[in-house]
Automatic annotation (TrEMBL):
Enzyme class: lyase
Keyword Lyase (UniProt): yes
Physiological role: Specifically catalyzes the decarboxylation of meso-diaminopimelate (meso-DAP) to L-lysine.
Parts of the chain that traverse the membrane: none
GO biological process assignments: lysine biosynthetic process via diaminopimelate
Pathway participation: Amino-acid biosynthesis; L-lysine biosynthesis via DAP pathway; L-lysine from DL-2,6-diaminopimelate: step 1/1
EC annotation from Swiss-Prot or TrEMBL: 4.1.1.20
Source organism of this protein record: Microbacterium limosum
Active-site residue numbers: C391 (proton donor)
Residues given in the record as substrate binding sites: R316, R360, Y364, E392, Y421
Homology family: Belongs to the Orn/Lys/Arg decarboxylase class-II family. LysA subfamily.
Name of the protein: Diaminopimelate decarboxylase
Binding residue positions for pyridoxal 5'-phosphate: G271, E313, P314, G315, R316, Y421
Length: 471
C-alpha cells in the first residue's frame, strides 16, 4: 500500500504494525503466545481487567535500570577526569513517593521546584541533604520550609530571592548552600542549539551578572556559594548545547575563584533526549556523559582551574520510556481530506482518555506512537490519528501513526513513552477522573497512584460541601 499523503515526512509505514519498537517500548515489552502485549512480566489485558482504562503502566525495572545506568555513566566519566558527579532526578517529570524511592535506591538525588514536590520527596524518605530546590518564584514559605528541613542545595534565581533566603537562613541560624541559576544564552532545541548573548526567558541571572551575584552571596549572611547551575532545554540530542554552556559557566568560575570555599559545583541541568517514535534515536547516556565531561575537563584546564564537581538533573530520560498508557478504543471514523494528490482518508480512532491524561500533543505538538496491545493483526495498515474524548478538536494523543486496518471498538490501544510529563500535567478537564498509575515488575502489578473517582471529583464542589473547615 502506498504511504498516505497525509502522513508527516518523518513517519514511515511500518513493515509490521504489531512490532513493539526497541528503544520506544520498555525493554521488558513483548507479545505473548496469544499476541497480547506484556510489560514488566504483566499481560496488559490482565492489568486492564483489574484496573480498567485509561491506565498508566510504569515498568519499575526500566526506571531503576535507567537511573542506575545514568549514575554509573556520569560517575565514571567524572572519575576519569579526577572529579565526581551528582545526579538528581528531576521530580517534575513524574514524582510519587514510590518513584522517589526507586531512583534514590539506585543512587540518584532528587530535584524539586515547589513545596508540593519537596513534601513528596521528604515523605518518601529522601534525605534532605540530597535534595535540590530550583524555581524562579519560590515563596517565602517554600524557602523557609526548605531551610528548616535541611534541603542540600537551593538554586537562586533572582536578587530578591537572594535577599529573602539570606534573611530566612540567618534568622534560622543556618548556612544554606546555594547555586546560581545562570541564563547562559544557550538554548537547545531537539536537533540543534542556539547560543545568543541575551536569551529572552524567565529563568536565571544573565551570564554577564553571574560574577557580581557570586560576590553578593559571599557577603550575604546565611548563604554559602556552592556553584553554578543552568538548564538549557529538554529533549536534546547530542552534546553541543551542554558543551557550549559548560564553557560559558567555567569562564565565570575562573573569574570568581574559589573564595576559600569547597570545590564549586557545575550543574548542567537535564534535558537528555529519548525516542518517542522509531524516527528518533537517543544518544547512549555513556556517550553523552563522556562528551560533556571531556569538555568540562578541557575548558577547566584551559583556564587553569580545577575540574569542578559536576551535577545533572535528568527527568524524562529516567521515566519517559518506562510508561505505557493503555486506552480502550471507543469509536473509529474515516474522514476524507483533500490533498494535492487527490482525496485521502485519515481514520480517527477515539479512546477513553485524551488530553486530560496526556497533554503533550495539545501543549507542545509532541509526537507519539501507538499499537493495538490486546492482539496482533495481519491486516494491512491505515494512517490514523488517535484522539481523546474531550470537547476540544485539539484533543489529540497521537497525531499520526499507521495501525492495522481492522482496529476496532474494544481493542486496547497502547501509547508508549508516556512516563514523563503526562501524569504530572494531567487534569480533570470535562470532569474526567485522572487514571491510576500501576507499577509492573516481575509479573506483579500494584497501584502507585490511585485513580480518581466521581466522589473525588465532587468532593471539592462547595455547592455540595459548603465548608471543609478552611475558614
Ligand atoms: C525540567 C528540568 C529538568 C529536567 O528536564 P528533562 O528534560 O526532564 O530531563 C532539569 N532541571 C531543570 C532546572 C528543569 O527545569
Amino acid at each position: 500500500m502506498p504511504a498516505s499523503p497525509l502522513a508527516p515526512a518523518w513517519l514511515s509505514e511500518p513493515s509490521d504494525a504489531n512490532a513493539l519498537a526497541e528503544g520506544v517500548w520498555p525493554a521488558s515489552a513483548h507479545r505473548d503466545e496469544t499476541g497480547g502485549a506484556v510489560v514488566g512480566g504483566v499481560s496488559v489485558r490482565e492489568v486492564v481487567a483489574r484496573f480498567g482504562t485509561p491506565l498508566l503502566v510504569i515498568d519499575e525495572d526500566e526506571v531503576r535500570g535507567r537511573a542506575r545506568r545514568t549514575v554509573a555513566a556520569f560517575s565514571a566519566a567524572a572519575a576519569a577526569r579526577g572529579t565526581s558527579a551528582r545526579v538528581y532526578y528531576a521530580g517534575k517529570a513524574f514524582l510519587s513517593t514510590e518513584i522517589a524511592r526507586w531512583v534514590t535506591a539506585e543512587g540518584m538525588r532528587v530535584d524539586v521546584c515547589t513545596q508540593g514536590e519537596l513534601e513528596v520527596a521528604l515523605a518518601a524518605g529522601v534525605p534532605a541533604e540530597h535534595l535540590g530546590f530550583h524555581g524562579n518564584n519560590k515563596s517565602v514559605a517554600e524557602l523557609r520550609r526548605a531551610v528548616e528541613t535541611g534541603v542540600g542545595t537551593i538554586v537562586l534565581d533572582s536578587e530578591i530571592e537572594l535577599e529573602r533566603l539570606s534573611r530566612i537562613a540567618a534568622d534560622a541560624g543556618r548556612t544554606q548552600a546555594v547555586l546560581i541559576r545562570v541564563n547562559t544564552g544557550v538554548h537547545a532545541e531537539t536537533h540543534h542549539f542556539l547560543a545568543t548573548a541575551h536569551e529572552d526567558q524567565k529563568f536565571g541571572f544573565p551570564l554577564a551578572e553571574a560574577a557580581r551575584i557570586v560576590e553578593r552571596i559571599r557577603r550575604a549572611p546565611g548563604l554559602r556559594f556552592d556553584g553554578l547551575h543552568c538548564h538549557i532545554g529538554s529533549q536534546i540530542f547530542g552534546t553541543d548545547g551542554f558543551r557550549e554552556s559548560a564553557a560559558r559557566l567555567l569562564e565565570v568560575l575562573s573569574i570568581v575563584g574559589d573564595g576559600g570555599e569547597p570545590a564549586p559545583i557545575l550543574n548542567l541541568g537535564g534535558g537528555f533526549g529519548i525516542a518517542y517514535t522509531s524516527a528518533d534515536e537517543a544518544t547512549p547516556i555513556e556517550q553523552l556523559a563522556d562528551g560533556i565531561l571531556e569538555v568540562v575537563a578541557a575548558e577547566s584546564a584551559a583556564r587553569g582551574i580545577p575540574v569542578p564537581v559536576v551535577a545533572f538533573e535528568p527527568g524524562r530520560s529516567i521515566v519517559g520510556t518506562a510508561g505505557v498508557t493503555l486506552y480502550e478504543v471507543g469509536t473509529t471514523k474515516d474522514v476524507t481530506v483533500d490533498t494535492e494528490t487527490g482525496p485521502a482518508v485519515r481514520r480517527y480512532v477515539s479512546v477513553d482518555g485524551g488530553m486530560s491524561d496526556n497533554a503533550r500533543h495539545a501543549l507542545y505538538g509532541a509526537d507519539f506512537s501507538a499499537r493495538i496491545a490486546s492482539r496482533v493483526s495481519e491486516a494491512g495498515t491505515q494512517l490514523v490519528r488517535v484522539v481523546g474524548k474531550h470537547c476540544e478538536s485539539g484533543d489529540v494523543v497521537v497525531d499520526a501513526e499507521y495501525l492495522p486496518d481492522d482496529v476496532s471498538p474494544g481493542d486496547l490501544l497502547a501509547v508508549p513513552v508516556t512516563g514523563a510529563y503526562c501524569q504530572p500535567l494531567s487534569s480533570n478537564y470535562n470532569h474526567v477522573p485522572r487514571p491510576p498509575v500501576v507499577a509492573v515488575r516481575d509479573g506483579a502489578a500494584r497501584v502507585i497512584v490511585h485513580g480518581e473517582t466521581v466522589t473525588d471529583l465532587l468532593a471539592r464542589d462547595a455547592g455540595l460541601h459548603p465548608s471543609r473547615g478552611e475558614e
